[in-house]
User: Fold GntR family transcriptional regulator from Citrobacter freundii.
Amino acid sequence: MTSNQSTVENAKEKLDRWLKDGITTPGGKLPSERELGELLGIKRMTLRQALLNLESESKIFRKDRKGWFVTQARFNYSPELSASFQRAALEQGREPSWGFIEKSRVSQYPDVAAPLVSATPSDELYRITGWGALEGHKVFYHETFINPKVAPGFIEQLESQSFSSVWENEYKKETVIKKLAFKPVRMAGDISKFIGGSTGMPAILIEKHRADSDGNIVQIDIEYWRFEAVDLFINL
Assistant:
């Protein structure tokens, strides 16, 4: 081990002890790097590497232009269930919030959305983008596609209802998950900015295909979760 590696490891141990002492609570903001370096007697470059090492262990996370924060408790997420993010978060004693970024009709869409037009051809799809947060920290970005010929006016129904509620209440359809895919990715800048991240931030991509009772795909969700924010599990 080089002396530089040893110095970084010592700095990381100092930071780790500081975090374990609970001086900053989960979700809380750390002092600026300058202040933290002065408090712990660590040089700036060494401190930065130690912070990056702790980030890779999911003990802290960054928000672009806002600084470092202590990692919150992970959200237990079972993607195959139809329960809304709000309901699942409340059941875990969390404080969820969410918002839409854009709701529109698009004539160009990614290949992943192609199954939506296989049963009911359409030249356009609804595209809905948004985010979800826990205790005020945004933890995921989502992009959802729906065929407007299958569910005309869907985007107008979303103001006060979840996706599953709109399907059930407005279109009398119960949806089930027909396909799930998971992939580790690095977020593009235009995606990560919506949840306070920086270009290339590691994330977990979840692709979900929802089908109606006839097996036709009616909704496709693409979710990008901050890697330190979620634990995934599947009920068998």
